[in-house]
Amino acid sequence: MKILLATSNKHKVFEIKEILKDYKLYAFDEVLKPFEIEENGKSFKENALIKARAVFNALVQKQKNEFLVLSDDSGICVEVLDGKPGIYSARFSNKGDDKSNREKLISEIKQLGVCESKAYYIAAIAIVSSYGEYVVQASMHGKVMSEERGENGFGYDSLFIPNGFDKTLAQLSSNEKNTISHRFKALELALIILKMIKKGKKGEKIY
Ligand code: ITT
Predict the structure, then answer these.
(1) What does the radius of gyration of the chain's CA atoms come to, in whole angstroms?
(2) CA 47, 48, 50, 55 torsion: positive or negative?
(3) pLDDT tens, 91-109?
(4) What integer best gives the mean pLDDT of the chain?
(5) Is residue 24 one of the residues assigned to a domain?
(6) Nearest CA to ligand 1 atom 11
(7) Residue 76, helix vs strand vs coil
(8) Regions of the chain with pLDDT less than 70
(9) Would residue 121 count as lying in a domain?
(10) Where does Mg(2+) bind (predicted)?
(11) Fewest CB within 10 angstroms: 10, 12, 13, 202, which?
C-alpha cells in the first residue's frame, strides 16, 4: 500500500513518517509537481478533504490505482481568542511564517492582559482513494503561554504545554510529542481505515 502525503509542510511529513512507520509513504513532490491548493473550507475536516481530493484528482489513472492520498489539516484554537487562529493557524500573521504567527499569538494574548490561556490543537486527516473518501479528527488539550520555550517541533509548539506536562511541545522529543499529539491521535483513527482498505470490503486485496 503506497500512501501519497498531500502536504507541502515538511514538519508534518516528518511527523507522519515517524508515526506511520510501517507504511510506504511518499512526499507530494516525489510524485507530483507541487501546485497551490485553495483551502476554502469552513472546518479542519473540509480543508483536509479539499487537499486530499485535489491531489488525488491530479494523479493519472495508473497512479490512482497505485496510491492512496492522505492529507492533514491542523491548527491551534485559543480560548481567550474565541478559538482563533483555528483553521487560519498557518496564515495567522500577514507574513504567514511560523515565527511571525507565534509573535502575533503572543501579542494578541498579551493585549488581553493575560499571560496564558487554555488551548487545543486539532488535526483532521483525510484519506481519498479509488476506494472512497474518509476523514477523521482528533485534538490535544493544554495551554498556550505568552513566552517561547524550547527548540523542537514547529509552528506554535514552543508556546504550547500539553495537559499533564510542565514543558512545552518544543521541549519534548519528537518521540514524546508523537505519542500524545493531535496528529498521532488522528492518525491512530486513520490507521483503522487504512487497515480496512488494505483488507478490502469482501476480503479482496485492493492496494
Ligand atoms: P499543508 O496545507 O501543505 O499541509 P500547512 O502548514 O499550510 O501545510 P495547515 O493549513 O494545516 O498546513 O496549517 C497548519 C498550521 O497549524 C501549521 O502551519 C502550524 O502553524 C499549526 N500546527 C498544526 N499542527 C501543529 C503542530 O503539531 N505543532 C505546531 N504547530 C502546528
Answers:
(1) 18
(2) positive
(3) 999 898 999 999 999 999 9
(4) 95
(5) yes
(6) 73
(7) strand
(8) 201-207
(9) yes
(10) 38, 73
(11) 202
24-27, strands of its sheet edge to edge: 24-27, 2-5, 67-78, 116-129, 132-145, 160-162
pTM of the entire predicted model: 0.95
Host domain of residue 7: 2-201
Nearest 5°: the CA angle 51, 56, 57 is 100
- Residue 206 inside a domain? The answer is no
3-class secondary structure, 29? helix
Mark whether 82 is an active-site residue: no
Number of domains observed in the structure of the chain: 1
DSSP state at residue 85 = B
**Mutation to probe ligand 1, out of 12, 32, 177, 185 (largest number of atoms < 8 A from CB):** 12
Which residue among 8, 38, 45, 74 has the greatest number of ligand 1 atoms within 8 angstroms of its CB, and so is best to mutate? 74
Residues whose CB falls within 8 Å of the CB of residue 154, separated by 6 or more in sequence, listed in order: 9, 11, 98
Please name the residue that has the C-alpha cell 514524546: 176
In a domain, 207, yes or no: no
Confidence (pLDDT) at 201: 54
Catalytic residue (choose from 22, 29, 72, 73): 73
Question: Does ligand 1 come within 6 angstroms of the Cβ of 72?
Answer: yes
Find the CATH number of the domain harbouring 179: 3.90.950.10
Tens digits of residue pLDDT in 154-164: 999 999 999 99
